[in-house]
Design brief:
mainly beta; Immunoglobulin-like; 24-stranded antiparallel beta barrel; 9-stranded mixed sheet; 41 strands
Length: 744
């Protein structure tokens, strides 16, 4: 505990040194109220736009951050009692067409000509909102946290339109004040505008941002100065009901088809201008994008991000605690019940849920969550309740401290549930400090968590700290973790316990001095990841040197040379294909080399590949190749084919003697063709096919989405699963779902 207190004191000292004032204070845009109506049609012919505040002097971010932009971008803003209006005219370098993937929402930033606005409504340089579009009119919206992190799964009600001519393309948008959270009676917001033009090979921003950071970095936002405070939002209520009809059939169990007609929905209540209450009753998430399947040759569980809309707003107040592999709360655990006896997650429908999140004051944030799942009698899964309370306090310029408490309660009332190993409760508490310097050069985190269960034991804790420095030339970081053998966050994501982890990293960034060079930058990095169990025995080491780079046309490349050592913590089938397992305690070491390349998104035909060649467990050899080819029919969609191939050869499985030892091999594929059609920026169709030999499953998911009004959709979703060997149907489902966003 003394060591932990010293670490926290060290972080506070760094915070005091590196905090400062707003960097781009002198970049100010003054906004005034409009006196006439604005029609969102992508044509800037209203008097409101001629009278509106405007900025046009953008500065280059990439490939150089010391030059003025070659491309002119005129941005204007105004407002009335209901809407914040933004327009941007993006002039082209020459009379040429734009580059976009499709008309699909929340597009890939680096593959589309686009204009984005980042709004820091509380001017805390940490949280905010982003809106924008690509040059063809596909919308982008996201909620921001941790200074630049973007959650594009956030979706809200707003309008936009774009038009195009040979000299420029125009973006025009109306954002309801009801759709964003902000402090009342404030006349200052943080703001920045970003422009990417792929053919001109230029990314620019209004308020300058160092090229090693994304333009979304709120630390470098300018200031939006209001003539009078924006309208104080009245308490408003949004009701989002849905109706659903569907049919599903399980051909494995040969049960009769199940028909379901279901209603439910969400309610959003603005408790204040900065606090929101989300409630859901009988929710359904059948329209959520399917996960992209991955080959798992690791010994631990894979991580998949949350995509369900109910859990998205202010999700950093809940999911943001911890690190990539120590997460005390992971919302995807809700709606799934882990059967401790079988180790299998069972689907459990959610009965109801409520989330209160937002700002109490300019410095305090709060998150409260309560969700209840249904009981599944046939599988011995009890009714479960999930609750969480979190507070976050802003410190210094951009840092913060957070505390939380999580409770998972299982209402056990049958012997089957007890025999299945369900615990009456699982609780977690914790405190963490997040460091973010004013200029974003220094970032870090330190935390200490504990878990409580009915069979509470010692070593039920986790602790980690990280500190990183990145400027225009160097990357230096340190991470360490210490997790007890009995740390057990059932609502979290913690793939392994009982270890100590140390990870130093050093990198050098190279930018060519010759402005005519096609290279944007290259990075040389060296890192070493080391694990010991808490008895002091070294169990894992991965050390590698990597050379990575990006060209000015947005293509990228890389090569890695690595060394791995593993002492198995338990028996492990290294092929994950049902072969004989390697024994616990056996030691394995190998070298490998990796290559990657991703082509420029400017071309209609694109491809990427990653290849890995080298040793493997049991003195074996693994060849792994991933490739993806795509062709886009700009702007109406694309077709793509992705392939994952793994060939594992000559893994030695020791026997009782040399004669009993044997070598095993396995080869398997994941094949992922996809068709993405965007008829308009409101009508989408996607078909995703996935053949996974490792999990022995073929999945087909087809989804038609019609956004007939802002944030209101009609979905038609078809899902099939097959056995790959004989292509026999396992299960099949068809769902029709309609939801409607109604503001009361």
């Amino acid at each position: 505990m003394k060591k932990l207190l010293l670490i926290i004191l060290f972080f506070f000292c760094i915070s005091l040194i590196v905090q400062g004032q707003k960097i781009n204070e002198k970049f100010q845009m003054r906004i005034q109220k409009t006196t006439s109506k604005v029609v969102i049609d992508g044509v800037l012919n209203e008097q409101s736009w001629f009278d509106a505040a405007a900025v046009s002097d953008f500065v280059m971010v990439n490939p150089f951050d010391t030059l003025c932009s070659k491309l002119r971008t005129d941005v204007r803003m105004t407002y009335d009692d209901k809407y914040l209006y933004i327009s941007a005219e993006c002039f082209l370098q020459s009379e040429s067409n734009y580059v976009v993937e499709s008309l699909k929402r929340d597009f890939s930033f680096g593959s589309n000509d686009n204009f984005l606005v980042f709004i820091d409504t509380f001017e805390d340089k940490t949280t905010g909102f982003s809106f924008g579009a690509n040059a063809a009119g596909a919308q982008w919206d996201g909620q921001m946290s941790e200074g630049a992190k973007m959650n594009l799964n956030w979706d809200n009600k707003w309008e936009s339109a774009t038009t195009y001519n040979n000299k420029s393309w125009i973006f025009e948008a109306a954002i309801p004040f009801k759709s964003i959270r902000y402090r009342g009676n404030s006349t200052r917001w943080g703001i920045n505008f970003s422009r990417l033009d792929l053919k001109a090979k230029e990314k620019s921003a209004w308020a300058p941002v160092p090229r090693q950071f994304p333009t979304a970095s709120l630390a470098y936002a300018g200031v939006l100065v209001w003539d009078t405070p924006p309208p104080t939002p009245k308490q408003n209520i949004s009701v989002i009901p849905y109706v659903l009809s569907g049919v599903s059939a399980n051909y494995e169990t040969k049960n009769p088809a199940i028909f379901r007609n279901q209603i439910g929905g969400d309610i959003k209540v603005s408790i204040s201008s900065s606090m929101n209450l989300d409630m859901t009753l009988n929710p359904d998430f059948s329209q959520v994008d399917v996960d992209r399947q991955q080959t798992n040759l690791d010994r631990f569980e894979l991580f998949y991000p949350e995509k369900r809309q109910f859990f998205i707003e202010n999700s950093d107040l809940f999911d943001g605690f911890g690190t990539e592999n120590i997460r005390p709360f992971f919302s995807r655990r809700i709606g799934l019940a882990l059967n401790p006896k079988t180790g299998i997650y069972e689907q459990t429908p959610i009965t109801y849920g409520a989330r209160l999140s937002g700002k109490l004051t300019n410095d305090w944030r709060i998150g409260v969550l309560n969700v209840q799942s249904e009981r599944i009698e046939a599988k011995g899964v009890p009714t479960q309740n999930f609750s969480m309370l979190a507070f976050q306090r802003k410190l210094f310029a951009r840092s913060n401290m957070g505390v939380f408490m999580i409770n998972k309660q299982s209402f056990i009332d049958t012997d089957v549930q007890r025999q299945n190993g369900f615990l009456e409760y699982n609780r977690n508490i914790g405190v963490e400090y997040n460091l973010a310097s004013a200029n974003n050069f220094w970032t870090g985190k330190v935390f200490y968590y504990g878990s409580l269960t009915p069979q509470n034991k010692d070593e039920n804790f986790s602790h980690a700290a990280s500190l990183a420095y990145q400027d225009n030339n160097w990357i230096v970081s340190w991470k360490h973790q210490w997790v007890g053998a009995n740390y057990n966050p059932e609502v979290g994501y913690v793939p392994r316990v009982n270890y100590t982890f140390i990870n130093p990293e050093l990198g050098k960034i190279f930018y060519p001095k010759n402005k005519s060079s096609k290279l944007f930058y290259a990075t040389l990095r060296a890192t070493s990841m080391n694990y010991w169990n808490n008895q002091g025995v070294k169990t894992d080491n991965t050390t590698y040197v990597a050379l990575e780079g990006k060209m000015k046309d947005q293509s990228s490349f890389g090569t890695f040379i690595s060394y791995d050592y593993v002492k198995l913590l338990y028996d492990f089938d290294a092929t994950r294909m049902g072969n004989t397992a390697l024994k616990k305690g056996s030691e394995h070491a190998w070298n490998a080399i990796n290559f990657l390349y991703k082509s420029s998104p400017i071309k209609l035909l694109t491809f990427s590949t990653t290849a890995r060649f080298g040793g493997y467990y049991g003195d074996g050899w693994r060849t792994g190749i991933t490739g993806e080819f795509g062709y886009r029919f700009q702007p109406f969609g694309s077709i793509s084919m992705a392939l994952d191939y793994n060939d594992i050869q000559d893994v030695l499985i020791p026997g009782t003697d040399v004669a009993a030892s044997k070598k095993v091999s396995s080869q398997f594929w994941i094949i992922r063709p996809k068709i993405d059609i965007t008829f308009t920026n409101k009508l989408f169709f996607a078909t995703f096919f996935q053949l996974n030999q490792q999990t022995k499953n073929v999945n087909l998911n087809a989804r038609l989405q019609w956004r007939y009004k802002p944030a209101s959709d009609l979905f038609l979703v078809y899902t099939d699963n097959y056995f790959p060997e004989i292509f026999q149907i396992r299960n099949r489902a068809l769902v029709l779902k309609l939801n409607y966003w109604l503001n009361l």
